Amino acid sequence: MNKNSTQMLTGKAFEYAILKEFQEKLERNTNVEVVQNNALTTAKECFNTFDNEEQGRYLLTASFAVNFLIDIEPRLSNDINEKDILQLEILTDYHGQSGDVRDVLAIRLVQKWEIGVSAKNNHRAVKHSRLSNDIDFGEKWIGIQSSKTYFDEIEPIFTHLKEMQKESNHTKTWKSLGDYHSTVYVPILNAFKKELKKIYNTNPSHVARQLVEYLVGKKDFYKVIKGKNTVEIQAYNLHGTLNLPFDSITPKFNTPRVNLPSEIIDISYKENSKTTLIVKFNCGWELSFRIHNASSRIEPSLKFDINLLSAPNSLFINKLSIF
């Protein structure tokens, strides 16, 4: 099984474990309803591929995280009346394409309230996005169309890749190209870098904010990261919707609001790298964009592995030891 498949399997299994722990702990105090959908079925199937011992580890890790979330989100376990049902749902991957990175959702329609959890198993990537002839990253990420100049620069490279793929009947490999980092990655990254700067200059504060919102998350959420013997909870309280009280019941811990950036300070290559750009913002945000080929065989598209290198000091982080 390749890395992406393993990551998908373990990630979905962890999503299911979190939902199950929410259900088990909260149905003692309030009416709980689990939304039946394809995403739930997929997550359950992934969870069931593991043996009982491994499932136990997933559930124990999720239990620690869910107990903490119940402490800081009083509305999870407190309802107005019996009609105030807590709905638990696993979201489809489609939501992530529009910038909603949450995997597990807890909703109270009566209270017009919801919180979401982004479940990660041993990795901290914030986004996996593609570049190609047909993808307008400016429009998709920020809502501002990329220029004709940008597409004119990248089009010959991706067209050539497509021709090689077709002529070899999808068998030609990236390795056969020699130093493809210099001949493919660098010109694509240069065009991307130049276009991002151009888009930024049209409306700096809007673009800086929108870029981080799209890549980190347009909706407030908790990121729960499962480690070997730990679980880490991060509170991305970007819009002030997390950590709310329920009547006189207040959260046991405070997760402060995290300021979104209003400025891109620098876009430059990582030192000694032909594959990674570092984008630095104000307010303490910093993201890395590593471009790579998703397959060993040539494809007319490339993938970004985007990671959060730093965030504002106000980002709430709590790391719990499990074993």
What is the radius of gyration computed over CA atoms, rounded to a whole number of angstroms? 21 Å
Following the backbone from N to C, one meets helices and strands in this order, namely HEHHEHEEEHHHHEEEEEEE
The total domain count is: 2
Mean pLDDT: 93
Q: Shape, please?
A: globular
Summarize the amount of helix as a percent range. 25-40%
Largest sheet: 7 strands, mixed
Count of separate DSSP helical elements? 8
Low-confidence stretches: none
Strand content: 15-25%
What is the number of strand segments?
Answer: 12
Strand order of the biggest β-sheet: 1-2-3-4-6-7-12
**Head-to-tail CA distance between termini:** 28 Å
Assign the structural class, choosing from mainly alpha, mainly beta, alpha/beta, alpha+beta, or little secondary structure. alpha+beta
Quickly describe the structure.
The chain is globular and about 60 Å long. 38% of the residues lie in helices and 24% in strands.
Description of the molecule:
There is one protein chain. With 323 residues, the protein is of the alpha+beta class. The chain folds into two domains: 3-124 and 217-258 and 314-321, no CATH class; 126-212 and 260-310, no CATH class. The protein has eight helices and twelve strands. Strands 1-2-3-4-6-7-12 form a seven-stranded mixed beta sheet. β8 (264-269) and β9 (276-281) form a beta hairpin. α1 crosses α3 and α7 crosses α8 (204-216). The protein is globular, with a radius of gyration of 21 Å.
Fill in the keyword field for this structure:
alpha+beta, 8 helices, single chain, 7-stranded mixed beta sheet, 38% helix
